[in-house]
Amino acid sequence: xxxTQHLIGLLLGTEEDWPTAYEALVARVGPISYRGETxxxxxxxxxxxxxxxxYKPRYSLVxxxxxxxxxxPRAWLKKVSLMDDVYLLNNxxxxxxxxxxxxYCALIRLGxxxxxxxxxPHKVPAPIPHFEYMAAKFPDxxxxxxxxxxxxxxxxxxxxPLYMKPFDGGQWVGVSRIGSPEExxxxxxxSGERMMHxxxxxxxxxxxxxxxxxGPETMVMKFRPERPMHDRYEVAHDFLSPELGSEIVTxxxxxxxxxxxxxxxxxxxxxxxxxxxxxxxxxxxxxxLTSLHYYFPWAIAALVRWTAFCAISQRRMRLNQNTxxxxxxxxxxxxxxxxxxxxxxxxxxxxxxxxxxxxxxxEQLPHLDELVVEYVESPEFDSLxxxxxVATFPPHEHEHFIAHFxxxxxxxxxxxxxxxxxxx
Length: 424
Description:
Layout: E1 3-11, H1 17-29, E2 32-34, E3 37-45, E4 61-64, H2 71-84, E5 87-88, H3 92-97, H4 100-109, E6 117-120, H5 129-137, H6 141-145, H7 151-158, E7 162-166, E8 176-178, H8 181-190, E9 196-200, E10 207-214, E11 217-223, E12 233-234, H9 242-259, E13 263-271, E14 274-279, H10 289-292, H11 296-312, H12 323-330, H13 337-351, H14 354-364, H15 368-376, H16 379-392, H17 398-422
Parallel strand pairs: 1-3, 1-4, 4-5
Antiparallel strand pairs: 2-3, 6-9, 7-8, 7-9, 10-11, 10-13, 11-12, 13-14
């Protein structure tokens, strides 16, 4: 039986926790037999360096956590995807070209209940060399192309409270709750060169949910944004009705299939029993051990499953979007919302090859769940947990948080063992 090796590259920021766990699990999986061949997965961390546009990369697949912020790795990812068919979990073309703004626009057309949202110009236009040249040559160019507008009128149309947030932001940076016209004016004045959205607030809601999607798998978690990061994800299993849970998963899968993203998190508010998406673009979703805690092992296992499937089955990355297929459903006024969701789920399931993926995991990775439990209960993982806590929290809190996270991860392992016993 022939053997094929697949090198998975990790393009990282400063994180150490999830990459270490991912590398450990990939090593534990061992060789995988698939369609008459033996496949071995290896990992390697990528560094930024000059590159010849005609060089051939060694990677079968790259997990990117850096290119949203830095031009050099973004340019490298575009090269290896365009020229070399290296598989990327998130399409660098759509993630660069679209921001939260484009996600809002697409979802509104598709009939999803995005809260009323406006885009407003920069308070201080960012310096653009070509525009500065035009402004110097034609002094009235700014007044010609930048119409004056009444910010208070927009605020009144949306109603208070509302939220102002960057159209391309992340990690809640620059997000402000606005309670009055005076606050709106002051916050806009302070926004500087950032282009902003203003969006109707949904207050007194029942649930704030954050859904993390990795390939065709989505975990919807109860999220409490007002709490410290280590306590925002509440361990809760039945906080949504089956219908709402299915709706949120479907919308999450929809936006990811639509934009060709496979490692992304989404935020949804449930108010009066209705789901409203408020954030659907996170190029580097939160997978930190000290924030996901109980859900961290699931995330790493899902990442191993999806990357193994993509590399070994030689799944081809889709650079182009088939937006028209979605709009043919979204544009129909005679199709009820629930029927649109069903059609979107069919499209997203086809994109993610759900049936093939489940068969692959069942036949090639049946031992992975047990490996994850063993790893989480190992001294190796406990050492990673301690190192992560020490690097994250002040010294006087180390003992408390080590015990806190050990307890949550121990509860996860116990739940996994109970679930496995129930199915045998």
